[in-house]
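Exam revision sheet. Question 4 asks you to relate a sequence to its structure. Input first:
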Amino acid sequence: ISHVAGLLDAAATGQPYAVEGGAERYVLEGFDPGRFDAIAAALWNTDGGLRLYAPQDPTHVSHSALNLQHTTEHIDVPARCMSTLLAERGIDRLALLKLDIEGAEYAVIDEMLDGGVRPTQVLVEFDEPIGLFHFFRVQRRIEEILGSRVDLVMRDAVKRQLRDRIFAEAVRAT
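Answer key, structure tokens:
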């Protein structure tokens, strides 16, 4: 939530905002923080309910629909798919999509493609290690959304000596 608060403050004051505190910056041109709407539902590939499993570390807040950490504690929450959320709000263009959804990226991106949702910018954060098969499935789906080839990399996989330069040169869809 502090990340969202910082992003909204930056947009309101016209300041750049770092993506996860790194060298990358969100492109906030045209973003109106006054139209920001917090939705009390999980983002998923169908509308309805969703079981989210707690992380093993109780100091972490991110729950997982895929139960990545193999825990039994869970919460049941309402869930919405992106195409429904946008249609309900009369939004026909999504400028920025940032996914940090604990392994559910493929399911959500697949639903977005089926629903015709094509954001201008896509940022996906993977907190848990994922297999190469899942990683490349997500990359292919993002390429379909953007309509062009993308380089999808794990932040920690980039050598520290090169990280700032690579992220400074990253191309963002506009």
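Marking note for examiners. Residues 132-146 form the longest helix (15 residues).
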